[in-house]
Write a structure and sequence with these properties.
- The protein has 167 residues and is α/β, with parallel strands linked by helices.
- The chain has one domain (2-159).
- The chain contains five helices and eight strands.
- It has helices at residues 2-15, 17-20, 23-26, 86-98, 145-159; strands at 29-32, 39-44, 47-52, 56-60, 63-70, 103-109, 119-123, 130-136.
- Helix 4 links the parallel strand 5 and strand 6.
- It is globular.
- The model has no long low-confidence stretch (mean pLDDT 92).
């Protein structure tokens, strides 16, 4: 389910980039699994190891203004961390630093346990980089055009302006 959710979100953004993305991101190269922008976390014996693969990297003029990752996991609104696993957060931290990216968006599906949208901004210590954790409502009849439009509107809000990064 995780790979299906990732592919669904990435392909929806790529297919409808003109409707979903803010103006400053529309001319970005959209790189699924960072294809064409391979970055590794480390080297050993002068060889790169631990390849980083954000679900969608936004590249513009050789920089990465935004990275997006999708996880098909349940969040917990009562938890200060929203139930985001340490492993997932460390992964977003690595993305932000190795790609020199100021903003990483981590998208989860809304579930019956969290029927309301969730969004939390995490400032990475010692930097100006942020990880935004958010949910999208995929509990819609997406074969209906108006329901697809609602989902696209949610993604527009998440990715709009300062990429959903506001206090």
């Amino acid at each position: 389910m995780n790979q299906l959710f990732e592919a669904f979100i990435v392909n929806l953004i790529r297919r409808h980039r003109q409707e979903i993305l803010p103006l400053d991101l529309r001319d970005c190269d959209l790189l699924p699994q960072s294809r064409g922008a391979t970055i590794y976390l480390a080297k050993t014996n002068n060889r790169p190891v631990f390849q980083l693969k954000p679900d969608l990297a936004f590249r513009k003029n050789g920089t990465f203004p935004l990275l997006l990752d999708a996880k098909y996991k349940r969040l917990n609104a009562a938890d200060i961390r929203l139930g985001v696993s340490e492993d997932d957060f460390y992964q977003m931290h690595a993305y932000a630093h190795r790609y020199g990216c100021p903003s990483v968006v981590l998208i989860y599906p809304e579930t019956t346990e969290t029927p309301e949208p969730l969004q939390r901004r995490f400032l990475i210590g010692g930097s100006d980089k942020v990880v935004v954790v958010t949910t999208v409502n995929i509990r819609r009849e997406l074969s209906r055009q108006e329901h697809r439009r609602l989902l696209m509107s949610e993604l527009t809000t998440i990715l709009g302006g300062d990429y959903g990064i506001r206090e």
